[in-house]
Amino acid sequence: MIQTIRKAWGIPELRKKIVFTALILLIFRIGNAIPTPYVDTALLNNYIDQLSTTVLGLYNVMSGGAFANATIFALGVQPYINSSIIIQLLTIAIPALERLARDGGEEGKKKIQSITRYATIAIAILQGWGYYMMMKNYGILTVSNFWAALVIIVSFIAGSAFVMWMGEQITEFGIGNGISMILFAGILSRVPTMVGQMISGLRAGTLAWWMAALVIVGMLALIVLITWVNGAERRIPVQYAKRQVGRKMYGGQSSTLPMKVNMSGVLPIIFAQSIAMLPATIGAFFKTPSEGTFWYGLLQAIDSKSVPYMLVYFLMIIGFSYFYSTIQFNPVEISNNLKKNGGFVPGFRPGKPTADFIRKVLNKITLFGAVYLGIVAILPLIIGRIVDNASLSIGGTSVIIVVGVALETVQALESQMLMRQYKGFLE
Questions:
Q1: Higher local confidence (pLDDT), 280 or 132
Q2: Which of 106, 111, 262, 352 registers the highest number of CB atoms within 10 A of its CB?
């Protein structure tokens, strides 16, 4: 990875893109340090720390700690991610959007992107208002009049819109996917804090050395597993029939149909984690029940350190993995495209038999990918229970995002370098 960045730095055009991406990420980090007025950040920090195993803790990690400090970028890329997922699901459910995405070409993509932007602003308005009401109800605001409410909510909405714009600028003029890069920078900025907490725990004696070693070994094992599975794919052989057009013979070559093992990325973990944490988030807003009561037992059962939570979380990841693979990869459509282009899978007739075979292979690799995602998500929970550290409950999501974005960025750099180093057959 370092060698790739060093080579890319030697190409002037790529150097400009790297510098542009770095400047945008610097602006993002500066915005994460600018607090919104009328908020007592010390009280808010303590409150979010108590809810580290809820959805609010997940938002705080994704925003790079900005959520707990109520900065202007507190909402981060969450509204954009949520709107992208919603529009993607609506594209499958609404025929007009499906036709626009499939047959609209470049113009259709621009319209869907415009709809996603408007949906991002709408979600930012809802989340900003909800965030303000939470701070108001828990006495975290220094001033709670209409003017303060307007300033706080508008700051959150404007910050979210600006983060979305910065992500789009990185995608167009920088390196890699902009939203992923901003998410990457936010999560990575939490690493020094985590290391500092671990060192403080070792010095104070609250964290045993073997516990710290277990956390480090677990994270390294996750990075190796994610790197190995990220590039894994199942290649289905495809043969194209020969056909004669005039005096020329076309086709006859062999190819492959690649199917990624982890086709849905980190989305199943994010969705499953948000839903699995919802009961604990709702329970955190109420008074803690007395020990020995039914409600106390229920809160213990839905806690992120409990075994029932881990089982439900694991099963939800598998369910969402199948759901997203079905959305992204349509065996019938792939089979029809192969048939139109004169391609076929050896041993299977074009049409329904080919579609059934592709669906069977898809189900097998989706199961493997879902189990892999489940292990990545559950392993930090198990380590966190052993070392009694609840903050590791979101560790699997963070690691898979950071490693995945790093690998994608390196691949983008390598492809751009390959394109510029190829001189062509004329020379």
A1: 132
A2: 262
